[in-house]
């Protein structure tokens, strides 16, 4: 067992969240916002301050640090990864973090907005934190624990390892990416240059959660082109794209599962945008399933409904195109059984019960896994993310630090 670190994780989180690093899904440049790099630059400085020599912010906006091994011989290189941006869904400007020590279970009225109250009844997981410390924002912004808690956990771990060189571990790579929330976090990353064998994102929720499976994801784009005519003289001529598209959407909604009806391991089909006019309509669907076969089945059904619609309206032009988004990393992770074995051992040694959950979404890990770096996701404790109610328990973050300190030793065979 490790001797208890003198955790710096809560202090770090409180500092990092005060730096505005919201990303922008509409921007073309990368990183999508320049201000994200204010966090990145600080992290480079802090890592140098810990004595990490090989650390830089590369021109693409990634912080990459290499911590040398403390053991001889060939040991797998582990990469720890978090994202510096916060979600554009909620303001991340002037975040004022509040540390609530000895949370009693009473309602937490956030001081900057009387409407914002965090209640035990709404967040049952708060029960686990009664008598302990939690961190919230002040009512006007999100907190940014997603994913600055992950950053704080990694930084605390590295600080501890640098101060305790007797702890046996292989080479460790630290990676802080911009733009995870815009889905572009790995866009400019040269994975091979990291030289890592296995990676972990610190971007999960409840204590003990461990994620090695995400959705498979595609987008289906349907376009309906109608036939225009003067509405006063349209009889027998006009084919209205709005009418055709409405029927199409309705039929698909009746045949295939929707997000609002599904949970756990069920997939869904989600029309998220429909725009245009009587002449032309475009409809965008998100298609999600844990099994690739299920994903393809959904797409086949949509295509056959579109075909039927084309038969019913021969003068209209209906096209249906599928675009790949990301893939479930589980088949890749399963090729490396030692990942689950070693991670399980580290949780156990840190006294944390492991709870394996599929992610009903994507992570940077799914992309990294398909880029050749198998990557699973470890908890940080973050809750109610992307909202003004976002909160995190300090003890959850500290347990995550314990897990990482054990993890590097397990991988080194120690
Ligand atoms: Zn995140």
What is the CATH architecture annotation of the largest domain? 3-Layer(aba) Sandwich
Give the helix tally.
10
Number of strands: 17
Q: Which ranges are low-confidence, i.e. pLDDT below 50, for 5 or more consecutive residues?
A: none
Question: Care to describe what's here?
Answer:
With 414 residues, the chain is an alpha+beta fold. It has two domains: 9-213 and 328-411, Zn peptidases (Aminopeptidase, 3-Layer(aba) Sandwich), CATH 3.40.630; 216-326, Alpha-Beta Plaits (2-Layer Sandwich), CATH 3.30.70. It is built from ten helices and 17 strands. The chain has helices at 9-16, 36-49, 145-163, 191-194, 241-255, 292-312, 330-334, 337-349, 364-370, 394-411; strands at residues 54-57, 63-67, 78-83, 98-100, 108-109, 117-118, 134-136, 172-177, 198-204, 209-211, 216-225, 268-276, 280-289, 317-326, 355-356, 375-379, 391-393. The chain has an eight-stranded mixed β-sheet with strand order 1-2-8-3-9-16-10-15, with helices on both faces. It has a four-stranded antiparallel β-sheet with strand order 12-13-11-14. Strands 4-7-17 form a three-stranded antiparallel β-sheet. Strand 5 (108-109) and strand 6 form a beta hairpin. Helix 3 crosses helix 10 and helix 8 (337-349) crosses helix 10 (394-411). The longest helix has 21 residues, at 292-312. The mean pLDDT is 96. Bound molecules: zinc ion.
